[in-house]
Amino acid sequence: xxxxxxxxxxxxxxxxxxxxxxxxxxxxxxxxxxxxxxxxxxxxxxxxxxxxxxxxxxxxxxxxxxxxxxxxxxxxxxxxxxxxxxxxxxxxxxxxxxxxxxxxxxxxxxxxxxxxxxxxxxxx
Length: 124
Description:
Blueprint: E1 3-7, E2 10-13, E3 18-25, E4 31-37, E5 44-50, E6 55-57, E7 65-70, E8 75-80, E9 89-96, E10 113-114, E11 118-123
Parallel strand pairs: 2-11
Antiparallel strand pairs: 1-3, 3-8, 4-5, 4-9, 5-6, 7-8, 9-10, 9-11
């Protein structure tokens, strides 16, 4: 049974921090990523990590967010620091079962599996 389950979302004031977690089960994968979406907008790639450990970040979060993985335990994390109101969104964990070139790692259509999402709200 393929499953991705996120946790760690919540409400925080601007400048604060949150750590999102995702647990994967039931499949193997080569790339994992975090995406976010607000109502009326397309899902946006935030950060991604390949099975070789290489990472990719959206320009809007560089220097503030860090993606990491605990491969033996099938866990993915997103440490979010210096949060801004514009970071408010539903955050999704995703996985791709094939290797993605760097230019595709923040593109949602290339991912095969998705979690249900966890809400992050940042107030000013």
